[in-house]
Amino acid sequence: MRLQEYQGKELFRRVGIPVADGKVAFSPPEAEEIARELGGPVVVKAQVLVGGRGKAGGIKLAQTPQEARAHAEAILNMTIKGERVRKVLVTRAVEIEREFYLSVTIDRAAKKPIVIFSAEGGMEIEELARTHPEKIVRFHVDPLLGLQAYQIRTALFQSDIAPTLMRPLSDVFFKLYQAFVQYRAQLVEINPLALSDGKLIAVDSKFIIDDDDVPVELQGWEEEELAGSPEERAAKQAGLQYVKLDGTIGIIGNGAGLVMATLDVVALKGGRPANFLDIGGGANAEVMKKALQIVCSDPNVRGLFINIFGGITRCDEVARGLVAAQRELGIRVPMVVRLTGTNEVEGRKILEAQGIIPVADMEEGAAEIVRQTS
Ligand code: GDP
Ligand code: MN
């Protein structure tokens, strides 16, 4: 299950990671009231389970309670990447001097937690991996030993962090790792982790918790208001962005922009997309299986085009996941796959061996799947 930002921030509070004061509002007058209680400038933030809310217009700064009310009016009921906004977080505005990225997740290949840090925060990690791969540092944590101070020091040293920031940043690393362990998370992320007036503060939160292992104190935290078709609900529960369309070619990609582009190219080649599905940054075997399951539950799907591009994606792992899912789910429709990233050559070999067609680019792939399904 995924937590909303305000829920994740509550967990940050519990482990001692600083966050700005704030409250959730379901209506514009409530937002105004909260802004008045907080005093000073506030930020009104759409509470939806997708990233990139800022770019989508779901985050707005308000100088006055009246302005907070107007922003809430604009943001509530807005649709962000297919998700309807039903509540907003009204939170004290933070003056940001600098933004960092910090996350802890499971590296499935190594079967160990991995810490990812970047002195360049704010943008999403996939985008960061594309544009500034050299600014990302990552290291594994031995689950038995736990996170070690020297590992953090090394990572911060590699990132050219000033000595004065070493101690406060280390503190946040330890606390985030504690949250990761304590809440049995699959992913915890602070992006941005802001430097404000010399102090660190988590401006955003992201938590993914194993559905089969939800700690007691978080039971009932799952959002009840899951709207949409059964496929859309299943997708949302899996943390995927899925929108059903009325064509015949199932589309899976990583990154909303890439998926949009894929839909366009397929249409350009004369095909009709059956859906929009963004698996986001977590392109691993398990996520891929879930995505295939959702897309293939649509009886109109006659072929699949999977477009996974770049960055920290482990292509061999995704390829193995695809092959396993194809077998387990009994998928018989043709599958065309574009896969680039780490170990891509190996990934393509795995696909080829199973009769799945690997292609080098999006256009070729779109043309191929249209040919296969027409
Ligand atoms: P996301 O777009 O869904 O990841 O939402 P975030 O909570 O990460 O906000 C996106 C961006 O809005 C951040 O990277 C900040 O640059 C900006 N932002 C959000 N809250 C504040 C705030 O309190 N103060 C300032 N100055 N910027 C903010
Ligand atoms: Mn963010």
Q: What does this entry look like structurally?
A:
This protein is α+β, with helices and mostly antiparallel strands and about 375 residues long. The chain folds into three domains: about 70 residues, Dna Ligase, domain 1 (2-Layer Sandwich), CATH 3.30.1490.20; about 120 residues, D-amino Acid Aminotransferase, Chain A, domain 1, CATH 3.30.470; about 140 residues, Succinyl-CoA synthetase domains (Rossmann fold). About 35% of the residues lie in helices and about 25% in strands. It contains twelve helices and 18 strands. Strand 4 and strand 5 form a beta hairpin. The longest helix is centred in the middle third of the chain and has 20 residues. The mean pLDDT is about 90.
Compact overview of the structure:
By secondary structure, the protein is an alpha+beta fold. It is built from twelve helices and 18 strands.
Determine the strand fraction and express it as a percent band. 25-35%
- Named at the architecture level, the CATH assignment of the largest domain is 3-Layer(aba) Sandwich
Tell me the name of the CATH class of the largest domain: Alpha Beta
Q: Which structural class best describes the helix and strand composition?
A: alpha+beta
Number of strands: 18
How big is the Rg? 21 Å
Largest sheet: 6 strands, antiparallel
Give the number of domains. Answer: 3
Order of helices and strands: HEHEEHEEEEEHEHHEEEHEEHEHEHEHEH
What's the shape? globular
Proportion of helical residues: 25-40%
Number of helices: 12
